[in-house]
Design brief:
This protein is an alpha/beta fold. It folds into 2 domains: 133 residues, Rossmann fold (3-Layer(aba) Sandwich), CATH 3.40.50; 210 residues, Dihydrodipicolinate Reductase, domain 2 (2-Layer Sandwich). It is built from 14 helices and 14 strands. The strands form 3 sheets. A 9-stranded mixed β-sheet has the order 13-12-11-10-6-9-8-7-14. Strands 3-4-5 form a 3-stranded parallel β-sheet, sandwiched between helices. A two-stranded parallel sheet has the order 1-2. Helix 1 packs across helix 12.
Length: 367
């Protein structure tokens, strides 16, 4: 991910200039510094002491995100930090307060808010194109990871160093976009499991949620599906939005649904639905790099214009809050209301980190 950010920064000549690269791996750091025409630094403190930067991009293991963000803010720098900003919503909120006190911009790398299809869906919802959403679903199973992924970097599978499994480490991208579209739920019931990986954190999770308008929603995320799905469906009283990969389809019908249900005299009515492709994925179907660049561009403009970026800590905290609520429900085996009880989750997270609480193993989990 560090290389992706290096390419993104280098591609934004207007307002961005790469002045330093920092990595504890001296060989990797030296190569990157040479390739991208920057100075090499062996530590964050060395980079900050040099006084050459106005902003820092953090692409390090999640357990370092919060501490390094604080350190950079204390040094007076703006921060672009990869997701998740912190493992708990409480710490995300504390970092939001720290950024406000420092008067600096903090952008969290929830890049899917810059995806063309999600931006278009957000606009359609704002204008009431499909009416009030009564049911929504998120399936984020396009994150297949073999055991080798965790073996290569053991911190990827431990609660204390990564903060969570598929929901917080991978699918948080879609979760953030999903919440951007429909808002935080008010209540959820969830289960999380370890199914195919020898790790502490979950590799599969399912949740049933109640939305603030009493609408219903479901969430499924997984790192065990070689053929995965990246799909959000939003069903409203006047139509449907389907976000499949990088595309967006809009389904319309002669409604609204509430009227059709109440007044149709046909026991099995055939409702004619017209579908329209509003956003079509570009050839190749991978627009990921564009999202990273656009997130950086927004970071630069936010600094220039003294405004909040699209994904500041307070916004990024919402996906972390949902993940925390899912884990709390899964461990305690009962529904959880939101806003989340911060103390309750902090207690459970401490138990997950030290082994007093565990995510259950099912299926063919390796011993």
């Amino acid at each position: 991910m560090g290389l992706a950010h290096l390419f993104a920064v280098s591609g934004l000549a207007d307002g961005y200039r790469l002045v330093g690269v920092c990595d504890v791996d001296s060989d990797a750091c030296g190569r990157a510094a040479t390739d991208f025409g920057a100075e090499a630094y062996s530590s964050l403190d060395a980079l900050l002491d040099a006084g050459v930067a106005d902003a820092v991009v953090l692409a390090v293991p999640p357990s370092h995100h919060a501490a390094m963000t604080r350190r950079c803010l204390e040094a007076g720098l703006h921060v672009y930090c990869e997701k998740p900003l912190a493992p708990t919503v409480r710490e995300c909120e504390e970092l939001a307060e720290a950024a406000a006190r420092a008067g600096r911009v903090v952008q969290v790398g929830c890049q899917h808010r810059f995806q063309r299809s999600y931006v278009a869906a957000k606009a359609l919802l704002a204008e009431g194109a499909i009416g009030e959403v009564f049911r929504a679903s998120l399936v984020a199973t396009n994150w297949f990871r073999p055991q080798a992924y965790f073996d290569a970097r053991p911190w990827r599978g431990a609660w204390a160093t990564v903060g969570g499994g598929v929901l917080l480490s991978q699918a948080i991208h879609q979760v953030d976009a999903f919440l951007w579209l429909v808002g935080l739920p008010t209540r959820l019931t969830a289960e999380a499991w370890r199914t195919l990986h020898a790790v502490e954190v979950e590799d599969e999770v399912t949740a049933i949620m109640r939305l603030s308008n009493d609408g219903r929603a479901t969430l499924v995320a997984s790192t065990v599906d070689p053929v995965g799905t990246n799909r959000i469906e939003l069903h409203g009283d006047a139509g449907t939005l389907v976000l499949d990969g990088f595309g967006l389809r809009v389904g319309g019908f002669d409604g609204p649904a509430t009227l059709l249900c109440a007044e149709s005299r046909d026991e099995f009515p055939k409702v004619a639905v017209e579908w329209e492709d509003r956003v079509v994925a570009r050839p190749g179907g991978d627009e990921w790099y564009d999202l990273v660049v656009d997130c950086h561009r927004d970071f630069v403009v936010a600094i220039r214009e003294h405004r909040a970026p699209r994904t500041p800590p307070a916004e990024a905290a919402k996906a972390v809050e949902l993940a925390n609520a899912v884990y709390l429900s899964a461990v305690r085996g009962r529904p959880v209301d939101l806003p989340l009880d911060r103390d309750a989750y902090d207690e459970v997270y401490a138990q997950l980190c030290d082994g007093r609480a565990v995510v259950p193993q099912i299926g063919n989990t390796p011993v």
